[in-house]
Every structure is written in C-alpha cells, then in structure tokens.
Amino acid sequence: MAGVDELTESTGASSRTLSQSLDALTDMGLVERRTEAAAPVATYYSLTEKGAALRPVFDELDAWAQEYIDSTDYAEE
User: Fold this and answer.
1) Minimal CA–CA distance to 3: which of 39, 26, 35?
2) Which of 4, 33, 55, 62 has a 20 to 30 Å separation from 45 between CA atoms?
3) What's this model's pTM, rounded to 2 decimal places?
4) Does residue 23 carry a pLDDT above 90?
5) pLDDT by residue (tens digit) across 2-15?
6) What residue segments make up the domains of the chain, in order of their start?
7) Cα(38)–Cα(73) distance, rounded to whole angstroms?
8) Is 73 helix (H, G, I), strand (E, B) or coil?
C-alpha cells in the first residue's frame, strides 16, 4: 500500500499525471483506492488481485528491457 506522496516521489510523475493514471487503473480494477478519514486525511493505493497477477508480466518486460535496451540511447545530451 502506498500513499500519493510516496508514489509521486518514486515515479517522478506530476500529480496530475499520477492522478489520471491511478484513476484509470482503478477503473480497470487493477488498483484499489482507500481513503482514511481520520486526521490527517490520507489516500492509499494497493494492487488488487487482478493487478498483482500482472506482476510477473512486468518483471519479464523489465528483464527484456535491461537486456535489449541501452539506456544511454535515451540519455539527454
């Protein structure tokens, strides 16, 4: 489970982009949103069972990318 601030920091995404992405993932049933009303109010996100089932797929994509994509090709000059 992660809060919005934690996700913003770890992804480097803007608040707007992150919010739109989380809304879409929630609509697809991949992410679950939980809001705690106790002060301070906080919103947390976690993977659903459906979302967690994708983890091995993304692990394979990550392994492929590390083997075949040279990150220096995309470095800013």
Assistant:
1) 35
2) 62
3) 0.73
4) yes
5) 887 888 888 888 88
6) 2-71
7) 47
8) helix
